Amino acid sequence: HSVVRNGLFCLETAADEKENHVYTKALMAYAFALAGKEEKRKALLSSLEKEAVKKDGSVHWQRPGKEPEVDLPFYRYRAPSAEVEMTAYVLLAHLTTQPAPSQEELSFASLIAKWISGQQNPNGGFSSTQ
């Protein structure tokens, strides 16, 4: 459909920008995964991996300029909803590929899922993500 084609063209043009925000990259990676644009998906995921926060056997993304999390005993840090959301989009981008994700992608995705599951509140939900 021409509207979808034009929308993808717009996203492809935006993806080539040098200064894309990490949240924007996460959304675009998932959009390209859904559209079957494998090269763009992989390029964005590669760029995102360089910006990933790898800590305690898990992986997540946070907004640039954000203050570091407090490291206190018995204190469980809960990330802001935007960070849970963008990390979830990166996870979806890793898992939405044809053919099925590689073993390497699944291993990396499990590290992302570990972080996301650690962000659940006591009721099993998350902060106000969509």
UniProtKB/TrEMBL annotation:
<dbReference type="InterPro" id="IPR011626">
    <property type="entry name" value="Alpha-macroglobulin_TED"/>
</dbReference>
<dbReference type="InterPro" id="IPR008930">
    <property type="entry name" value="Terpenoid_cyclase/PrenylTrfase"/>
</dbReference>
<dbReference type="InterPro" id="IPR050473">
    <property type="entry name" value="A2M/Complement_sys"/>
</dbReference>
<protein>
    <submittedName>
        <fullName>Pregnancy zone protein</fullName>
    </submittedName>
</protein>
<dbReference type="Pfam" id="PF07678">
    <property type="entry name" value="TED_complement"/>
</dbReference>
<dbReference type="GO" id="GO:0005615">
    <property type="term" value="C:extracellular space"/>
</dbReference>
<feature type="domain" description="Alpha-macroglobulin-like TED">
    <location>
        <begin position="2"/>
        <end position="130"/>
    </location>
</feature>
